[in-house]
Amino acid sequence: MDTLPALQTEFDRAEQARAKGNEGQARVCARRAAGIAIREYFSRGGTRVPNASAYDLLNLLKEDSRLPAEMQRAVERLTLRVTEEFKLPVNADLVAEARMLCNWLLKN
User: Which domain holds residue 87?
Assistant: First the structure.
């Protein structure tokens, strides 16, 4: 998989979903983008990556001691469960969080 085009596609989809008022779909796309970058990060580091969902990869990344605190917080927010009203329990922009995390993962 060519990582950068795949990431761009997911972030484009996230922005399109957000523009249509579908924040839930924007969150899904943000998490998928993070999953793409996580898979690349682990592969470059020689870690065999399981064929797992983006959510599972985010949870796997939580265990990585190399992540700075800010990236750990981004991973935590990206794995938050929504409330019964399908809202995040915190005020966070998961698309921006995913972009920040992806940028860090691709540079390290």
Answer: 3-107
